[in-house]
Design a protein that fits this description.
InterPro entries: TerB-like. This is Tellurite resistance protein TerB. It comes from Rheinheimera pacifica. By secondary structure, the chain is mainly alpha-helical. The protein has one domain. Helix content is about 70%, strand content about 0%. The longest helix is centred in the N-terminal third of the chain and has 17 residues. The chain is globular and about 35 Å long.
Length: about 120
Amino acid sequence: MATQQAFNEALLKLAIMMYRIDGKIRLNEQELVDEIADNLSWDGVNSITAVQSQAMADVREAIRADKTEVYLAGLKDALMFDKQKALDTAKQIMQSDGEEAQKERRLYDYLRQQLLV
């Protein structure tokens, strides 16, 4: 069973993927991800900044290689710790800029209908 810390790390990675997937980095999306990070209780071996930096690189690579679903599948066990919060977070980021990009919607639907069921 996943731990709270594993969930927090996976949630942060999911949030970064959701705001990076459409290739348009909007300030309100970045601020929302920062707010999510600020509200996580953190007791990981690595600092939250280190996890964020590594996640940014990993997400960029997953998007470039068209492996976003594979990347998210790797987070599944940890996200299942609180799948409703994971889905709510993804939806919040998807809707934060007032428009749902097609890539954001596709990723959210994958989470909701296939991965976190």
